[in-house]
Automatic annotation (TrEMBL):
Function as written in the Swiss-Prot or TrEMBL entry: Component of the eukaryotic translation initiation factor 3 (eIF-3) complex, which is involved in protein synthesis of a specialized repertoire of mRNAs and, together with other initiation factors, stimulates binding of mRNA and methionyl-tRNAi to the 40S ribosome. The eIF-3 complex specifically targets and initiates translation of a subset of mRNAs involved in cell proliferation.
Protein name: Eukaryotic translation initiation factor 3 subunit L
A biological process from GO: formation of cytoplasmic translation initiation complex
Domain PCI: 288-487
Subunit note: Component of the eukaryotic translation initiation factor 3 (eIF-3) complex.
PANTHER family reported for this sequence: EUKARYOTIC TRANSLATION INITIATION FACTOR 3, EUKARYOTIC TRANSLATION INITIATION FACTOR 3 SUBUNIT L
HAMAP family: eIF3l
Keyword Protein biosynthesis in record: yes
Subcellular compartments: Cytoplasm
Key words of the record: Cytoplasm, Initiation factor, Protein biosynthesis
GO terms for cellular component: eukaryotic 43S preinitiation complex; eukaryotic 48S preinitiation complex; eukaryotic translation initiation factor 3 complex
GO molecular function: translation initiation factor activity
Amino acid sequence: MANQDYEERPQTQELGYDPNFVPDSVKSFVVHLYRHIREKNVYEIHQMYESSFQTLSERLFKDTPWPSVDAVAHYVDNDHVFCLLYREMWFRHLYARLTPTLRQRIDSWDNYCSLFQVVLHGVVNMQLPNQWLWDMVDEFVYQFQSFCQYRAKMKNKTEQEITLLRQFDQAWNVYGVLNFLQALVEKSTIIQILEQEKEGLEQFTATDGYDYNGGSNVLKVLGYFSMVGLLRVHCLLGDYHTGIKCLLPIDISQQGVYTSVIGSHITTIYHYGFANLMLRRYVEAIREFNKILLYIFKTKQYHQKSPQYEQILKKNEQMYALLAICLSLCPQTRLVDETVNSQLREKYGEKMARMQRYDDEAFAIYDELFSYACPKFITPSAPSFEEPLVNYNQDAYRLQLKLFLYEAKQQQLLSGVRTFLKVYSTISFAKLASYMEVDESTLRTILITYKHKTHAVDSDGKITSNADVDFYIDEDTIHVVESKPAKRYGDYFLRQIVKLEGVINEMDGIKLD
């Protein structure tokens, strides 16, 4: 999660950095971490990974890398797997604090290849915290995305960089990335495990993926999180159908291992919601954005000291922007909790009112919100090395923006129809045509378009309606069917009770003179 912000970070001078110098606190850190991993002490590993690593990074390595793996290897018996894990953290720290060189990007790819090969084909007798396993998958996808953006900026590449790109053309190759993620899903048999769990034959979710019988959780949990990784990669590529299909084995209507790590929870719902938005499944997107935004609203104070806190806040803001888009294209506010709705009105109320006008200003707002909240799309293909060298890092984003705005403009036709349908329960064809100042043939086309645009095909292949106002035609009369939401008073009364309790507590606290 810490590395989902995709802008290049400024290169920091590594003055005085000696990769072979190992401070005593780092010696102690690697020795203890190695011992806890060997003893499968997940609690201590988690404390060292989440707390000690961050503290040492902040204190000793704010703008330099950690000591090299060669410098610490002899403190941990030159253990091959531990060294791969150390390098994984080493590169993650480098990406977070500095700008990696091309050589370092390639070396990080090689390290992931070696690490995943051990997990897939070796005997890994470890238990690692879910947070670390999620961060591995998350960082793997982030570094792939970062590499694609870096490679696409060809204009100012040096001859040395171009030579390296030609030489290591398999580094961060899209097929390699997808194959590793898919291999982890298949080798872990996680899909079968989740199926068996529904029948009561497995305890994967109940134990948060941990193995309490002396086994390892690494392959199973990496396989599980790789399904989220696949969703994210396919979203970056603009293949939303495949992305959602990869996530199907995880039932996101329930709590699961994906909700045990806040970064995983937010990444899953952000990409799932965005994919549904792009597939015109607005109701599903609104439901999921509403749930996660309500969850963040209630729990964000518990994450203030977490290294992921800034990312949580950023994704929170992006999902409010996506929710504003969804509700402007599909006005189903009844699906949104009152708490989320009031936050949304505060942030985007004025813009949402302007988006309903469907003029140039409205489309500029759609453009602005989409550009702010969308994933950082990538072009995965290798660049052309022919002169003149050009940058193509914005091409994928421009294409997705164009497709989205085309869809938003088509909704312009429907805004007039929806306005009239909301006013009438029945209206004749001729009357509606005259109100809309079109002939009956054009009106028929507009109504068919309305039907098409307010329906979508869900993951099971069923046609679902996004319409807040629907209709059917009987001879020459249009009959309107408006979905009347059941009024919910509970939220309102609960909020007033909490306010009243607050006032009573304040009054009790005032000491009378």
